[in-house]
Amino acid sequence: MTIRISDPLDLVAVLPYHLGYHPERSLVLVTVGRETIGVTVRVDLDVPADEHVALSRHLCAAMSRDGAEGCFVVVFEPSPGEGEALTEALMPELDTAGIDVLEHLVVRDGRVFFPRCVDGCHPWDGVPLRSPEEVPAVAEFVGLGRAPVRDRDALHDLMAPVDTTFARRCARETRRLLAQPVDSGCDAQPHAHAAAVRAWARLLSSFSGEGPTARQVAHMTASLADKDFRDALIGWLCPGCLPDSMVDPALRRRLARSLPQGPAADVIAQLCWLARHTSGSDAPGVLTVLATVSWSSGDGALARVALTRARALDPDYTLALLLERLVVHGIRLRATSGPEGPASAGSPRLLGGPTCWTRAWRGVCAHPYSAGQVMSASAQPRLAGRQPSNRGGVPRVTTRPARVRRGQARTEGHEA
Question: Which of 47-61, 329-343, 388-402 has the least mean pLDDT?
Answer without folding.
Answer: 388-402
